[in-house]
Amino acid sequence: MSQAVLPAAPAPVALLGRTTTRVVGVAAVIVGIVVFKVTRQQNVPSWLDLHVQRHAQSVYHWIVQNTGRNWFLDAIKSIGNGITWCQKRGLTFLRLLHWTGVVALTFVIGYLRAGWRTATIAAASMFAIGLCGFWDLTMVTLSIMIVAVAFAMLIGVPLGIWSGLSESAERRLRPLLDTAQVMPAYVYLIPCVAFFGIGVPAAIVATLVYAVPPAVRLTSLGLRQVPVVSTEVGMSFGSTGPQLLRKVQLPLARRSVLLGLNQVIMMAFGLVVIASQIGTGDVGVRVLAGLQKLDANLAFSAGFCIVFAAIALDRITTGERSLKPGRPMPKWMADRRALWAAGLAVVVVAALSAKVLSVQQYPSWRVGIGSWAKSVIDWLDKHARHGVPLIGGTDSFNTFLVRDILIPFRSMLQSAAWWLVVGVVTLIGWVSKGWRLALLCALAFTGIAAMHNWDLAMDTLSQVLIAVIISVCLAVPIGVWSGRSRWLETALRPFLDTAQVLPQFVYLVPVVFLFRVGPTPGMIAAVIYALPPGIRLVSLGLKEVPLAPREAAISFGATPRQELIKVQLPLAFKSIMLGINQVILMVLATVIIAGLIGGGALGLEALGGFTKPNIKMGDGVAAGVSIVLLAMVLDRLTQAWGNRSDQEDRPT
Amino acid sequence: MTSIGGVGETNSSISVRGMWKVYGPKPERIVGSELADLPRKQLHAQTGNVVAMRDINMDVAPGEVFVVMGLSGSGKSTLIRCLTRLIEPTVGTVRIGDVDVTAADKETLLDVRRNKVSMVFQHFGLLPHRTLTDNVAFGLEVRGVDKTERRRKANETLELVGLSEMGSYRPHQLSGGQQQRVGLARALATDPDILLFDEPFSALDPLIRRDMQDEVIRLRHEVSKTMVFITHDLSEALRLGDRIAIMRDGMFVQVGTPESVVVDPADEYVENFVRDVPRSFVVPVEHVMRDVDGEAQFSGSVSLGTKVRDIVKLVASSELPVEVVDESGRQVGCVDRVHVLSLIAGSEP
Questions:
Q1: Which of A169, A392, B313, B321 has the fewest beta carbons closer than 10 A?
Q2: What is residue B1's predicted lDDT score, i.e. its pLDDT?
Q3: What value does the mean pLDDT take over residues A478-490?
């Protein structure tokens, strides 16, 4: 065999023939079932318990008791005060602009960056926030977000430049970034509350830590994508290092850095609304109150404020004015400085005019978007609970999903001997990539066992897996279809675009009212949240398949079906697996958040950690660690599946 | 290899001695050792090294156009980048005028790059975020010339390459040929002594390529600059070069005038290259000339250096031989119809 000379060891399965693999697989399943039956109910032994709960709780108490006596804790405290000060100034600034100034500012930025259309959409979205009735609270959200984004960029861009220019820096930063990327947003809140206490600073720090990785990643990527020839041009004319960076590399990386800014804003936004849990007093609080009191009007009105703010922010940061070929840039556009000055003047005039016309407060114009949504929900609730052909109705579906799927699957996972679960995951890791991944899986799952919340972890895992299966079953066919049909792609695009910028949190609103409190809304919201990127990546993968092999297939008389199965799907395999990887991480993040509306499991434990730290910090930390370990295993496994296609190209 | 005409050290000559570039771990040990003689694949398997350039010696006289020709992977791009140390040579010296570039400190090197040498790149390398004017002004900008002055100079240079009034366009709005004119203007704007061309026209279609070659020939006559020109296109090399170096596997296999390369290829490799070149296009009349043997009547008179194909009409119109004269008009020999025909037919006269 020629494998001896290959640099990387292929997956062990590849060593076996296909028939052998099948026989071994079937045998393993049979043995597994027998072992499962015999060893049921073997719980995690007490010697494995690391007592994380107790230790974390006492560390937290120590922190609380020693604040004011210990220089380190005091330093953190004063950082927190500084952050609060910044946020207060930010809010003052937004209030100083009045609503007219904020809308004008949105318009000006949108116009200068992208043009009339974008500017109008963004400004209209901003304006609509007031129509939903929570202008002031949304401004609080924005002020928190602006501070978090500013700090995230201040930290992220220099780190990104460092890692973009230096190989060794990149090597050092990458594991950190990779880990940060799989952590669900929620988890960051726990340590932040432990150090900063409940309130705005913890929310901002959690948000900025969560939002730094994309800033670093995209800045670094942007610099690495600068064509070699551009760097050579810079050098060949005698640029010094700083000149090269300022005049060539950064301008060429600009688009990528701005994309980073957009991601930072969107991620920050997603976390800020969740962070309302820890008393930031912003619009997220109202969404939550609406959900908990089952007040559809309140939840929807506040939810739409978040939606409109997200759309406005996304619009003004993604648009890019493009020049028409064959025409020079108009003179009036070439002078950027004068343009921005003019824009600023418009904003100032708008802000002042609010004062002059004495409409400082957003007027009492209201669109009953909440009550309108409520009546739709009520109607659905009345007519679609039972007896809808084919689907059965929301209630029937709820019952089916929970009673017939979730509960049996969950009790299977929970009743299986804990070491059997660890073993199976380890085996999957070994089959997927080899002993390294197997070791990682084994350690991570044993770690979860040591957190003393095994049943909760299995509960979360079962919810995640079911939501993932539903998402994949929907995303792959829709993605394939839209990758092959132009009209479907065009029809889907606006939905996908909008859906992708909304924070997970708002997806919970409609599903809670349709499916009632319980695990179902979490899973459904997870599916809705994870579908857009899943569909997009599958469809993109299919479309990126080069024309040549497809034409070759057609020229040999392949039917469209054969072309899909024999050419497009295999070549798009990697992209599809990447889509599934994204789906899994997004589902996990949403299922965790859904803990606070009846999903229970690890999410609820983690929530306790930052809402009632005095009694639940220990449980929260343990749950947080379990969530991270779970996320890591799921991420590595799906990545391994995606990369296997490379190895299959090699001769065996 | 010696420099043409024994020109002394001036500011625009280039002299390269014993230059090597080896990639991979501990490259110095490969230089000059037996390892360097191993076939490429074997060397890479054995030590992880790749020899991109071996023992290059060359001298380019002021005002000369020196063309380096080779296929992709022959090391010619590495060579041109080593001249200003965009790539550090492993060993060897490069002198540009009276500066030893390879031993230069940071300031001297920046000075060479800013004031003496400019480069034109294969894929143009225009900066997409700048207008044409600011692209052309780039070299002046890093040199620290103030804004109005450098823009004035840049617009002037754009005019020189036929793109006046287009200064406020962006690169992506132009065609490939126009973009490379900007690349050329950018190199000229700093008024360097030496121009380096790295396959500048290979990305252009054949008609535009010819235009651009004419542009370079015109430049040669208008501004006397030393040029090193990299190409993989033999006809381009023959058109532009005063001398041509044929490069293969990191080495020069032959250096000489266009006609010597065509008429007298150094080995089979070069011969394969030049086989399809119509020799009458590059071979001057003295190559087929004989002494005048008492004849007094000629069908016409041409000067030394005239290419054979340019006397075809003359010899076809009459049985008589064609007289060849030197610069001062003195008769040096004559050419018979049979010699012209046999050269065109491909056999030695």
A1: B313
A2: 38
A3: 83
Residue A523 placed within a domain: yes
> What's the CA gap between A292 and A612, in Å, rounded?
17
Inter-chain residue contact B173 with A327, CB threshold 8 Å: yes
Query: What global pTM score does this model have?
Result: 0.77
For residues B23 and B122, membership in a common domain is answered with yes
Q: What is the CATH number of the domain that holds B24?
A: 3.40.50.300
Q: Does B316 touch chain A (CB under 8 A)?
A: no
Comparing CA positions, the residue from A478, A596, A457 lying closest to residue A531 is: A478
Tokens 């997009």 -> residue = A536
Nearest by CB to residue A237, choosing from B109, B139, B172, is B139
Radius of gyration (C-alpha) of chain A in whole angstroms:
27
Residue whose token pair is 């719980």 = A43
Of A473, A577, A477, A469, residue with least CA distance to A523: A469
Q: Which residues of A touch B81 (CB under 8 A)?
A: 232
Instruction: Determine, for residues A329 and B170 on separate chains, whether the beta-carbon distance falls below 8 Å.
Output: yes
Q: Domain total for chain A? A: 2
Distance between CA atoms of residues B308 and B306, nearest Å: 6
Contact residues on chain B for A229, CB-CB shorter than 8 A: 121-125
**Nearest residue of chain A to residue B168 (CA atoms):** A328
Range of the domain at B317: 281-345
Q: Do B190 and A323 touch (CB under 8 A)?
A: no
Q: Answer yes or no: is B287 within a domain.
A: yes
Would B144 be classed as within a structural domain? no
Amino acid of residue A253: A
Residue burial B17-45, b: 16+ Cβ < 10 Å; e: rest: eebbbbbeeebeebbeeebbebeeeebee
pLDDT band at residue B46 using 50, 70 and 90 as cut-offs: confident
Specify the range with the lowest mean pLDDT, choosing from A316-320, A538-542, B130-134. Answer: A316-320
Question: Residues A445, A468: one domain?
Answer: no
CA angle A209, A212, A215 (to 5 degrees): 170
Sheet holding B194-198, edge to edge: B117-120, B194-198, B226-231, B65-70, B243-248, B251-256
CA distance B136 to B154: 5
Task: Looking at the structure, tell me whether residues A545 and A442 fall in a common domain.
Answer: no
Looking at the structure, tell me whether residues A389 and A513 fall in a common domain.
Answer: yes
User: How far apart are alpha carbons B319 and A70 in whole angstroms?
Assistant: 111
Do the domain assignments include residue A197? Answer: no
Chain A residues interacting with chain B (CB cutoff of 8 angstroms): 227, 229-230, 232-240, 243, 247-248, 251-252, 254, 323, 325-329, 331, 334
Is the domain of A516 the same as that of A621? yes
> Are B76 and B122 in a shared domain?
yes
Question: Could you tell me if residue A55 is inside a domain?
Answer: no
Q: Which domain holds residue A446?
A: 416-450
| pLDDT digits 0-9 by tens, B134-189 | 889 888 888 888 888 989 999 888 888 888 888 888 888 888 888 888 998 998 88
Total domains, chain B: 2
| Cβ–Cβ gap A248/B127 under 8 Å | yes
Residue B210 in any domain: the answer is no
Q: A568 near A538, Cβ under 8 Å?
A: no
Residue B108 domain-assigned?
A: yes
> Do the Cβ atoms of A229 and B129 come within 8 Å?
no
CB spacing of B127 vs A233 below 8 angstroms: yes
User: Which whole number is the average pLDDT over B245-272?
Assistant: 86
Instruction: For residue B122, list chain A residues with Cβ-Cβ distance below 8 A.
Output: 229
Give me the total of CB pairs closer than 8 Å, taking one residue from chain A and one from chain B: 84
Question: Is A205 among the domain residues?
Answer: no
> Residue A7: which residues within 8 A CB-CB, separation 6 or more?
none
Question: What pLDDT does residue A328 have?
Answer: 57
Chain B residues in contact with A235 by the CB 8 A cut-off are: 86, 113
In terms of domains, do A498 and A626 share one? yes
Amino acid present at B106: K
